[in-house]
Amino acid sequence: VGLGDFRRRFPGFAGGGALTQVVLPCMITALYDGLQGQDRRLLEAAHGLGAGPARAFLGVTLPMTLPALRGGIVVVFLLSSTAYVSATLLGGKKVVVSGVLVMQEAMALLNYPFAAALAMVMLACSVLATLAVNLSVSRLTPWLALRPPGPPRGSRWPAQSAVAWRGARPPRTRAQRRRAGQRRGREGVPG
After folding, report:
1. pLDDT at residue 133 above 60?
2. Contact indicator for 12, 91 with CB cutoff of 8 Å
3. Distance, CA of 27 to CA of 75 (rounded, Å)
4. What's the CA dihedral at 26, 27, 30, 35 to 10 degrees?
5. SS3 170
6. Which of 42, 51, 72, 121: disulfide with 55, CB 3.0–4.6 Å?
7. How many other CB atoms sit within 10 Å of the CB of residue 138?
8. Helices of type H across the chain
9. How confident is the model at residue 14 (pLDDT cuts 50, 70, 90)?
10. Is residue 167 scored above 60 in pLDDT?
C-alpha cells in the first residue's frame, strides 16, 4: 500500500490503535446502557417542540447520557493506564506507558521499592483522574443533585408500610409511656 515501515516509524500509533481495540467495547457497553435507560418520550417532546435532530441530540440525549459517559471514561482510563501488554508488543521499547515502566522496574531491573512507589503514584493519579471526571460531569449535570430523596423506583408499598409502622409503635422508655398515658387521659381515651 506504500506505507513502508509504518509500525517502526510510528510505534505510538500502533499501541494506541491496539488499546482502542481493547477498551472500545467497554465504552460502547457503558454508553449503550445509558442510552437504553432514557425515556423515548423526551425525544418525542423535543421534536414536538420544534427541535431538529442535532438540537434534540445536544439538548436531550447528550445531557442524559453524561453519567454513562462518565462511567465509560473512568473505566477506559483505568484499563488503558495499566495496559502494558499491547504497548510492549506493538510499541517495543519506544512506547513507555506507566504500566510498562512499573513492569520494567519490577521484573527487569529488580528495583522493587521504586516499582512499588511508581504503582502508588499510578494509584494516586487514577484516583485524581476519577475525581476530576466525576467533578466535571457533576458540574455539567446539576439536575442530578436536585433529585428529591425517596424510595427507589418500583413499588412504594415497603416505604409506606415502614412509615406507618414507625407511627404505630409503642413508646420505648417509662417516661415516654407515662407521657403517652397522660395524653390519653387528657383526651378522654381509655389508657
Report:
1. yes
2. yes
3. 8
4. -140
5. coil
6. 51
7. 14
8. 6-9, 11-36, 40-48, 53-56, 62-82, 85-91, 98-103, 112-140, 157-168, 174-187
9. confident
10. no
Give the residue from 6, 148, 15, 5 showing the smallest Cα distance to 94. 15
Distances (CA, A) of 69 to 61, 74, 130, 172: 12, 9, 13, 49
Nine-digit cell string for 72? 465509560
Q: Which helix (H) or strand (E) holds 153?
A: none
Joined together, the cell numbers standing for residue 106 give 519490577
Contacts of 95 (CB under 8 A, 6+ apart): 11, 12, 15, 87, 88
Q: Do residues 98 and 124 lie in contact, with contact meaning Cβ atoms separated by under 8 Å?
A: no
Asked whether the predicted pLDDT for residue 191 surpasses 50, the reply is no
What are the pLDDT digits (tens) for 73-94?
Answer: 999 999 888 887 877 777 777 7
Query: Pick the residue with more confidence: 99 or 154?
Result: 99
92 touches 84 (CB < 8 A): no
DSSP state of 144: G
End-to-end CA gap in the chain: 96
Of 81, 71, 76, whose CA–CA distance to 23 is shortest? 76
Half-sphere exposure of 28 (CA within 13 A, CB side): 6
Backbone conformation region of residue 110, classed left if phi is above 0, alpha if psi is from -120 to 50, else beta? left
Centroid of chain to Cα 184: 53
